[in-house]
Amino acid sequence: MSDKTLERIEALEAHLAHTEKEIEDMNSVILVQREEITRITRRLDKLMGRVETLEDLAPGPEAHKPPHY
Fold first, then answer.
1. What pTM was estimated for this model as a whole?
2. Could you give the CA distance from residue 19 to residue 22 in angstroms, rounded to a whole number?
3. Which of 13, 16, 22, 67 has the least C-beta neighbours within 10 A?
4. Does pLDDT of 48 surpass 70?
């Protein structure tokens, strides 16, 4: 193989190694974000349950006319 071909292969290998590292880093970030989204979703579901309970316990609107009528 010529020197130029070896240089190109080495450059490609270096680029591939860099790309693999970037993919691993992004995957780590994605995993952390997935955990955070799951945690936030659970909290939102819990809060929505509380809101529904409060809505069920709240008195309904009054059916009388305001005094100015």
1. 0.66
2. 5
3. 67
4. yes
